[in-house]
Fold this sequence. Notes:
Elements: H1 2-16, H2 31-38, H3 44-49, H4 54-66, H5 73-86, H6 111-125, H7 132-136, E1 155-156, E2 170-177, E3 190-192, E4 195-200, E5 204-209, E6 215-220, E7 241-243, E8 246-250, E9 255-260, E10 266-271, E11 285-288, E12 291-295, E13 321-326, E14 332-337, E15 359-360, E16 368-370, E17 375-379, E18 383-384, H8 388-391, E19 403-407, E20 414-419, E21 435-441, E22 444-452, E23 458-462, E24 468-472, E25 480-483, E26 490-492, E27 518-520, E28 525-531, E29 543-549, E30 554-561, E31 570-572, E32 576-581, E33 585-590, E34 596-599, E35 612-616, E36 619-626, H9 631-638, E37 652-658
Parallel strand pairs: 1-31
Antiparallel strand pairs: 2-37, 3-4, 4-5, 5-6, 7-8, 8-9, 9-10, 11-12, 12-13, 13-14, 15-18, 16-17, 17-19, 19-20, 21-22, 22-23, 23-24, 25-26, 27-28, 28-29, 29-30, 31-32, 32-33, 33-34, 35-36, 36-37
Helix pairs in contact: 4-5
Amino acid sequence: MKKRFWSSFCLALCLTVMSAVAQTFPEGPGKTEFERICSACHATSMVAGLRLTPAGWAKNVNFMKKLGAPGSEEDFNKIITYLSTNFRSAKSPTAGSEMPPTVDRSSADSPYAKAALAAMRAPLDKLTPVTAEMLRNPPPGDWLHWRRTYDGWAYSPLTQINRKNAKDLKVAWTFSMASPDDAMNEFTPLVHDGIMFLWNFGDTFQALDARNGTLLWQYKHTLPSDYPWLPSIFRTKRNIAIGGDKVIVATMDMHLIALDMKTGNKVWDVVTDDYKSERTYNSGALVVRDKVIVGAGNCSPGRANPPGTDVAGYFPPGGCFITGHDLATGKELWRFYTVAHANEPGGDTWNNLPDEKRGGSAIWEVGQYDPELNLTYWGTGSPAPWSPVVRGTVGAKGLYMNSTLALNPDTGKLVWYYQHYGADAFDQDYAFERIIASVTVRGERHKAVITVGKPGIFEAMDAATGKFLFAVDPGAQNIATSIDPVTGDKTLLAVPLPPGVPYWCPGYIGARSFPAGAFSPSTNRYYLPIIDSCMGKTGDTPARFLALDLNTQKFAWDIRTRVPQSSAVLTTAGGLVFSATPDRYFRAFDDRDGKVLWESPRLNDVPNAFPITYMVDGKQYIAMPVGDPGSHGSTALYAAPELGAVQGAHSSVLWVWELP
């Protein structure tokens, strides 16, 4: 069988290389065996062009032997010696540098291949540095930030795809992404000058031609051999950043790295923490002028909260932090701890616990920025452990858990904070997007920072001062039994739960999670899906897609469906709202009334990432990574458990759509 396969394999390969130029090989032991066994099948130019280490040649020859190449063990040993002597690599191999045995490596040196490769990579030559002004006002066709603009809107001014023609959207191209068994994909691509920058699970970063998905370069970050095992939720990535001529990536082992945007080569690499602490970077960085700002995550992991015990499990001591770095060099310029330490302002809110006993306040998602106020806004997560009894802080606010932080990006100094849930006993993170937009409250106009935590309550603060402006509760929670209309202070459910209250809602997963909502200035609405299933009052339609009018503070939409949204939201000037559901559909809605205008064919897996839109050469595209969902995507699926039948095998694919 092997010989039959080898003969067919050899014949097929020979037919593809019949036009190869004859090659004279060096004399030496093993040449006769090589010409008799190998060159009868392989093009001579193929072998002459390869340069491998002895181990590389042995691997290739042994592979051919397994395929059924005729010859004795002595013949193969002579061939390995001959190739290792005459076609040896001049340098030590690096991971992945040895080509598969059937790859004609020499063809890469041919004039045709060189010209073709240069043409493929030509778009990289057109890349221009991303200036501070571009970051402040991105070109219409670019997607330069996590949510496109500093204000967190996820709104595009592009109108080529609109209400009238959205029904005609079709697949432009796809790109397979890394999908090992433990993969989780919650990423947001960036696009600049027609180049898309992408993360893959395992901290592989890539540049693609945004017109067709051609891979232009790839950078793989290698983890230490003793990197601790962490659940996938702490090893995913939600964004990268771009500034100047650099792509800024934050890795799971606490490196902050700058890559050359044209080549993928590493420019600088700084370490912000010992990876053995188990802090990670789930979010990416924010670039503000000549500064890079990044926040650490995984500071209140689930194993810090063992059920049914009164002893805390492990969590990174001292909580999380946000750091500021020099864009040119990576040098750390400042550090702000999201858990107030004993000798800092707010340090007296932890019931006198030593710093190493204070934990949590993780950064889930990158902050937003207001250039006029020169403030950057970041949301923090719950404390560790979740139980105030276990952590020893009953009744203590524990700054800065579940807070909005307003920092000066130049110094890292805290300008103001607003704590949404102090003394949290329910794991109600407020670690999601902040929308910066104007609102009218009691007849007065304010620039506001608006956010929604796990409880699903829409809350607004004055962007300059942090003063509470309003809260709108859609009713998916019972933890806040009342909200002061002036201060926003919440009266929280007692622990243990009082008689007549069988459970607290919305639970650990939340009425919403990391998939971000979006704002449209065309409608003045903040679009955000929630899952309202905890209290059992919504029956068979637990999903709600909300659109809050920021001026009236009333819901212009409250669309109830069986299937929740599982992706982030995208809005456009074309009058569209894009979002996806765990039954594997991606849809375009009319931003006025929520009518579905387009529905994709079924996708490969549950969509659980961030859609974007961009334009290259006058054509608008919609793009979104799909598959390998996290806890939110899986939970959204369970809200309609019958849909488990349509999920299929996990996989990650970048989908891109266009008009005909």
